[in-house]
């Protein structure tokens, strides 16, 4: 496909802007707290922008368009809308998250339950961030390779370099400020594509007339049980996922955390139907003969949105859309990289490898880890281009199943113990890995929809039972003092 020079120029300009913001953000970093949690100074607006941009990624743009033109139809919007529902639920927990004054989730586990749970949590949460980053690099490279006509592999390398550079310069400040710009590109770029797509199809009535009636069934692809499962998955993973919960840690105070969470939910509610409608419109164009389905034979239906943009939109608007899609994926990738670096440096390096590490040492190791994680994610992306959403769901589920209840209930239940936490971490994680990788979703011969549910159930039962049988020495929800905090 031939792409206008204007489109390429817009996207390159956007990428240069991200690098400039990263360079500017490095001036806001004076210590490790600034780097990891933005000095705990984020207000509601910045927090909402970075929360929404972090979670609206490749699955929420390319993935939902792909589902919308497939068997899911309009119900593919639930993939994004349930994120908004999760943010609403988290407003009730946000003040507790902020009040803990930790930098990472494993730090909470260490100071609440002991060193061993902290280490295990760090390992469980570090590894999936590589898969999540790889998924976002795949989505970004899809767009870049389509636009410029370069290979997918080379596109992955370019994306890896840009994301890693601006992320390591300013830490969470860099990620937050770039996210704030990116969320505009994401929502505006995708929304402005709709009228052009409908114009190519001859109007909404033509779209409706050229797709099956069940396409507009809100529960066609995702039924009510799937919606509940998605919401549970997002609540659990946003709660314990470093790339999301770090925003609550970084909020100015509990009120700012709550307001930011509500605003992020509104962005998701507004955005949710946009990629679904674009996917349906592509399906209509194929059925009308305006698009040849063979366009996707070689590269796959993940290219549906770029193909639509090139055919339907003027170069400037097409460039903004492409920048928006790359914004969605790059913002998520940068957050995952920062999460991986923070967890390794704060909870593995400082606690195991070099307990005498200074604040500057930890910041340096965080940056080195981000570079290494970026390279590892790049390798995963280069050799695995399977479904974006599948990769994301497994990464989310793996880390959430065992950690969710010890983390949330630890803020409220004085009887939560180290033994209960370890039992939940081990049992919840193992059941997810078993269902995903070995049993093909079967548990005792019964087909399980989302492995997050049995993982959570097993984790919860293990947590309660072992906490009861092996209670803590002291009944308290208070954290031990941070020995590294000056």
UniProtKB/TrEMBL annotation:
GO terms for molecular function: transmembrane transporter activity. The chain crosses the membrane at residues 6-24, 45-65, 77-95, 116-144, 150-173, 180-204, 224-241, 262-286, 306-328, 368-392, 412-435, 442-466. It is a multi-pass membrane protein. Its main location: membrane. GO terms for cellular component: plasma membrane. Signal peptide: none annotated. CDD domains: SLC5sbd (cd10322). It is found in: Membrane. Keywords: Membrane, Transmembrane, Transmembrane helix, Transport. The keyword Cell membrane does not apply. It comes from the Bacteria. InterPro entries: Na/Glc_symporter_sf (IPR038377), Na/solute_symporter (IPR001734), Sodium:Solute_Symporter (IPR050277). Belongs to the sodium:solute symporter (SSF) (TC 2.A.21) family. This is Sodium:solute symporter.
């Amino acid at each position: 496909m031939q792409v206008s020079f204007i489109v390429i120029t817009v996207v390159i300009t956007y990428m240069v802007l991200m690098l400039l913001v990263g360079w500017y953000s490095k001036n806001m970093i004076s210590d490790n707290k600034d780097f990891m949690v933005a000095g705990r100074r984020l207000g509601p607006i910045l927090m909402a922008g970075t929360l929404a941009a972090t979670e609206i990624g490749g699955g929420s743009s390319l993935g939902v368009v792909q589902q919308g033109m497939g068997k899911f139809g309009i119900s593919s919007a639930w993939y994004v809308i349930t994120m908004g529902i999760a943010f609403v639920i988290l407003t009730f927990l946000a003040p507790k998250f902020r009040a803990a004054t930790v930098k990472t989730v494993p730090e909470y586990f260490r100071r609440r339950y002991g060193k061993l749970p902290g280490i295990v949590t760090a390992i469980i949460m570090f590894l999936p961030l590589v898969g999540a980053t790889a998924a976002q690099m795949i989505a970004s490279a899809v767009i870049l390779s389509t636009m410029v006509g370069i290979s997918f592999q080379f596109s992955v390398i370019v994306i890896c370099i840009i994301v890693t550079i601006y992320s390591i310069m300013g830490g969470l400040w860099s990620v937050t400020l770039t996210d704030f710009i990116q969320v505009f590109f994401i929502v505006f770029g995708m929304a402005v594509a709709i009228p052009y797509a409908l114009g190519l199809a001859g109007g909404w009535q033509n779209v409706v007339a050229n797709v099956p009636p069940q396409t507009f069934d809100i529960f066609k692809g995702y039924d009510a049980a799937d919606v509940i499962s998605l919401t549970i998955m997002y609540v659990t993973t946003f709660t314990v996922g470093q790339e999301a919960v770090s925003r609550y840690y970084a909020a100015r105070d509990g009120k700012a955390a709550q307001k930011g969470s509500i605003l992020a939910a509104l962005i998701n509610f507004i955005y949710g139907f946009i990629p679904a409608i674009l996917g349906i419109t592509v399906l209509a164009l194929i059925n009308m003969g305006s698009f040849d389905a063979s366009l996707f034979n070689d590269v796959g239906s993940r290219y549906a949105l770029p193909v639509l943009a090139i055919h339907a939109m003027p170069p400037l608007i097409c460039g903004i859309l492409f920048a928006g899609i790359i914004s969605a994926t790059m913002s998520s990738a940068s957050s995952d990289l920062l999460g991986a670096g923070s967890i390794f440096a704060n909870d593995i390096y400082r606690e195991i490898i070099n307990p005498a590490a200074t604040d500057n040492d930890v910041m340096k190791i965080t940056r080195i880890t981000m570079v290494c994680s970026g390279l590892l994610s790049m390798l995963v992306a280069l050799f695995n281009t399977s479904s974006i959403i599948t990769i994301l769901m497994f990464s989310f589920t793996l880390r959430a199943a065992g950690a969710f209840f010890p983390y949330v209930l630890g803020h409220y239940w004085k009887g939560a113990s180290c033994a209960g936490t370890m039992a939940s971490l081990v049992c919840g994680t193992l059941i997810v890995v078993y269902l995903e990788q070995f049993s093909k979703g079967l548990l005792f011969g019964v087909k399980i929809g989302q492995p997050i549910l049995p993982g959570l159930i097993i984790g919860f039962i293990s947590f309660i039972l072992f906490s009861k049988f092996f209670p803590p020495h002291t009944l308290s929800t208070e954290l031990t003092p941070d020995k590294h905090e000056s």
